[in-house]
Amino acid sequence: MADNLQKGFVDIENIIPDIELDIRYYGKDNFVGERIDGYEAARCFITTEAAFALKEVQADLKPFGLGLKVFDAYRPQRAVNHFVRWAKELGNTKMKLKYYPDVQKKNLFKDGYIAAKSGHSRGSSVDVTIISLDNLQELDMGTHWDFFGPLSWPQNLTLTLEQRAHRMLLQSLMLRHGFRALKEEWWHFSLQNEPFPKTYFDFRVK
């Protein structure tokens, strides 16, 4: 039930019924390796404005047999607090090989991969990729979602031409519909005119 849903937010599937979700923080396939605090269902909440902007991106992709997959959008502050606690547990590196193979855990704060506040908690940021509607497979972006390292930088030139083209397609469509990109993560976008630019919410995803 979404009876706890903050005013100004929607369940994204109510706005884009055919969007694909892969809410990794509800499961164990994430850089922490366990379900993250505040994620009590595999659902995706987001501000109304961001949801309708994503709907336009989805509409642009659909004629080409493509669509969006969302990994995360609104993120409770308690989830960010969970990340911070985990980052201080230097001996817990069970997901290092997959998510941060070339980064020392002790440097996650210094290098900017973990912070005490996240734009996701304001509700208008989204982690997203493009999939083929034929088989729901993700386009090859060069790395998987939430990979910590320079290979995830959108402008990385060491990728193949196909991988760079896929990133360019995603970025160009997201920017066209009012989002801004992050220079360190090809999957992360925030709505330019976000409705809650200074508010960090903490209601649960359930």
Report on this structure.
This protein is α+β, with helices and mostly antiparallel strands. The protein has a single domain (9-191), classed as Muramoyl-pentapeptide Carboxypeptidase, domain 2 (2-Layer Sandwich), CATH 3.30.1380.10. Helix content is 24%, strand content 17%. It is built from five helices and seven strands. A five-stranded mixed β-sheet has the order 2-4-5-7-6, covered by helices on one side. The protein is globular. The protein starts with 8 loop residues before the first strand and ends in a 15-residue tail after the last strand.
Feature tags:
single chain, 206 residues, alpha+beta, Muramoyl-pentapeptide Carboxypeptidase, domain 2, five-stranded mixed sheet, two-stranded antiparallel sheet, 5 helices, globular
Give the secondary structure arrangement, pairings included.
Blueprint: E1 9-11, H1 12-15, E2 20-21, E3 45-47, H2 48-61, E4 66-72, H3 77-88, H4 96-99, E5 125-132, H5 161-176, E6 179-182, E7 185-191
Parallel strand pairs: 2-4
Antiparallel strand pairs: 1-3, 4-5, 5-7, 6-7
